[in-house]
Amino acid sequence: MIKCVVEVSARHIHLSQADFVKLFGPTAELSEKNKLSIKTDFATPYTVTLVNGDKKLEGVRVIGPFRPRTQIEISLTDARHMDVEPHIRLSGELSGTPGVTVSGDFGKTCLREGVIVAQRHLHIGMESANKLGLRAGMIVNLVVGGERGALLKNIMVRLATVDQPTVHVDTDEANAIGLPAGGSGEILIK
Model's pTM, two decimal places? Predict the structure, then answer.
């Protein structure tokens, strides 16, 4: 078993540069509010509102850097609230997913697709992955202890620049297992 950090990935949005300008104006700059465990990513001070008909989710954090396509990651509970069909996908796999309207301080953009529920995944550095015999795309399981401890299956291995192996689960999953802040677990390699 491999010890790892387990982090909660709350609802957020990755924006294309064009959509960022539509939402926050031509003079806005994508700045860093705080760092994230994946060294290439950062939380920005910007938030947006997601709109689908009369349903809204406010305060959705913008994560940098820019992506080629705008992508929204929400939980299954959020998907039900927003009345969008949930598609559990890896980041970047957006084809055939639902869209919503995104509203920012300056304007809005209507997405035809791009809303996903992120598949559970393990971020691990190349060197650590090689030592453990892991490759991108492999599936592992996670054991989390505690009063509501659980075995979480079907966690996709993703290579990333991280200090330590880190599993990302969404807020629904974290709440279901009573995951504390600074949670940890053990990876089981199949």
Answer: 0.93
Burial of 8 (0-12, 13-18, 19+ CB in 10 A): middle
| Domain boundaries defined on the chain | 10-118, 120-189
Q: Give the residue with greater pLDDT, 22 vs 39.
A: 22
pLDDT tens, 136-178? Answer: 999 999 999 989 999 999 999 999 999 999 999 999 999 999 9
Provide the pLDDT for residue 180: 86
Which amino acid belongs to residue 36?
L
Q: Does residue 68 contact residue 91 with C-beta atoms inside 8 Å?
A: no
> Which two three-digit tokens encode residue 36?
């994230």
Nearest to 74, CA basis, from 46, 102, 53: 102
Token pair for 129: 């992955």
- Mark out the alpha helices in the chain (DSSP H runs): 17-24, 76-82, 126-132, 171-176
- Cα–Cα distance, 114 to 168 (Å, whole number): 19
**Torsion sign (Cα): 142, 119, 12, 177:** negative
Please tell us whether the domain made up of 120-189 is placed in CATH 2.40.40.20.
Answer: yes
